Amino acid sequence: MKKRLYRRLRVILASLIVALVLSPFAVSAQDEADLLKDALSAAWPGMAENATVVDWEGNVLREGSNGWTCMPTPPNLTIDAPMCADSEWMKWADAWQNKRDYAAESLGISYMLAGDGGASNIDPYAEGPTDDNEWIREGAHLMILAPASLLDAFPTDPRNGGPYVMWRGTPYAHLMVPIGSRELKGEDQPVAAEGAGKIGRDVPGRF
Predict the structure, then answer these.
(1) CA of 12: how far to CAs of 1, 17, 24, in Å?
(2) pLDDT tens-digit map of 99-151
(3) In a domain, 164, yes or no
(4) Distance (Å, whole) CA 158 – CA 83
(5) Which of 2, 71, 135, 156 is most buried (CB neighbours < 10 A)?
(6) 16-56 pLDDT per residue, tens
C-alpha cells in the first residue's frame, strides 16, 4: 500500500516538475505565434508569405526573403497597429525614432492593412489628440515615401477624398493612401475615404 502511494506521489511530482519547466516555453511559443499573426496582418497574403518579422526589441521572429519587414502592434498600444515596410521605410523609421534628419532617396512603401491607433497629421511626436493637432485614426492604408518635390502635388487634408500628406514641412513627411474606413477626431462614426474599398479596420508616426 505504502509502495503504491509512494509511486503515485513520484509520478505526480514528476508531472509537476515537467509542467513547471515546460510551461514558460509553451507560453513563449504562443506569444511568438500571436506576434507573427499580428505582424503579418498588416500585409496582403502574397507579401506576408515571405516577409521577415521582427518584434519591437529587434528580435527576428522569422527570416524572410522578399525584402519586406513586418512588425507587430507596438506593445504600448491596445489597438491593432502592425505594419510591413520596405528598406526605405526602415531608414525612415530609424531617423524618426532617433529624431534625425531624413530625406527619401527613393520611393518607399509601407502597408498598414489592419489600420492604426491614431496620430497627429501635423506633429510627428504628438502622443495623443488635442483640439488643434489634427488627430486621425486611419483605417487600412498604404504609406508612401518620396522626394519632397513629388509630395508637394498632394493636399494635407485627410477629408479631401483621396491621398494626403502627413507631417508636411518635417523630415518625416509621407503620403497617406486610405483604402478602408477611418475615424477622424470629433466624429462619432468612422467614415470611408471616397472611392475606397473596405479592406480592414500607431503609436504616433506608426513607428
Answers:
(1) 17, 9, 19
(2) 999 999 899 999 999 999 889 999 999 988 999 999 999 999 999 999 999 99
(3) yes
(4) 20
(5) 71
(6) 333 333 334 333 777 889 999 999 999 999 999 999 999 88
**Per-residue pLDDT reduced to its tens digit, 150-167:** 999 999 999 999 999 999
Q: Which domain holds residue 109?
A: 37-192
Average pLDDT over residues 92-102: 92
Integer Cα distance of 67 and 85 in angstroms: 9
pTM score over 0.85: no
| Cβ–Cβ under 8 Å, residues 74 and 93 | no
Characterise 183 by phi-psi region: left (phi > 0), alpha (psi -120 to 50), beta (else): beta
Asked if the structure places residue 18 within a domain, the reply is: no
- Cα–Cα distance, 141 to 26 (Å, whole number): 34
Q: Maximum CA pair distance of the chain?
A: 88
User: Which has more pLDDT, 56 or 172?
Assistant: 172
Q: Could you tell me which residues are beta bridge partners of residue 142?
A: 111, 177
How many of the other CB atoms lie within 10 Å of CB of 36? 17
Residue 199 lies inside a defined structural domain of this protein? no
Is the CB of residue 96 less than 8 Å from the CB of residue 207?
A: yes
Do the beta carbons of residue 40 and residue 34 sit within 8 Å? Answer: no
- Give the total number of structural domains in the chain: 1
Domain assignment present for 143: yes
Residues near 109 by beta carbon (within 8 Å), at least 6 away in sequence = 85, 86, 88, 89, 142, 143, 144, 145
Torsion of CA 61, 64, 67, 68, to 10 degrees: -50
